Structure formats: C-alpha cells, structure tokens
Amino acid sequence: LAQAAICQSFLFSSSFLVKFTHFFAKMAPMKSMKSKATPVKSMSKTALAQALADATELKKSQCSAVLNSLAEVVTKEVKKTGKVVLPGISMLKTRVKPATKAGKREIFGKVCMVQAKPAKTVIKAFPVAALKKSI
Length: 135
Prior knowledge:
Elements: H1 2-11, H2 14-26, H3 45-56, H4 60-81, E1 83-86, E2 90-97, E3 103-107, E4 110-114, E5 120-127, H5 129-134
Antiparallel strand pairs: 1-2, 2-5, 3-4
Helix pairs in contact: 3-4
C-alpha cells in the first residue's frame, strides 16, 4: 500500500507531468499503418519479345516484328468491327461515352463549374475467363 501511494503521488506530481508532456511534444507524428507498396513494373516490349524468342526458338527481332504486326492487325480490326478477341488473353471492345453538358455539379460537397465534353469512343479490355481462373 505504501508503495502504491508513492507511485501514485509520483505519477501525478506536476514535475513528472511536465516532463512527460515535454517528451511527447518532441516525438515525431505517428506514421500511417499502410505499408508503402512498391510499384509493380510490367513487362516491356523487348522483354516480351525475348521471352517469346526463348519459348519459340525464334530470333528476338522476328518476335518483335510479330508483336508490331499483331498491334497493327488488332488496331485495324477494332476500328472496323469494334471488337477483337486475343485468344487466351483478353477481349477488346469499343464503347461510346456520351457527351456531357456544361453547368454546375456538386463534387465532394462543393459546387464546381464543369465544361462540356463531346462524346468519345474508348476501348475497354476484358480478360478471358481462363485467365481470370488462373490467377
């Protein structure tokens, strides 16, 4: 009991509280609990060409030419039909985003003036079901 009374009187003494608050005043603010995720680098065109060359026993330059021609064919087909399927990889579709009118919009509680935007066609990629299941 005597020890508890001494500890209690020490904890609530003014000099201890001054030192205690002074110590925490110098401390840096707490960091958030989120860990900083390292950005994931995607495979470059040359790395993809090298991987294809290793898998198919072709030259890297030939694989690069195949990738270039694939890009051209897909671009033409999407412009023409609006849909292309890359087997085992993805499906590319075009979608028309409608035009937006100019005026006032409430964004996060603030009223902002918004400019008019014309309709535009965007390309959306959808992964194939087999690719979804593999991940």
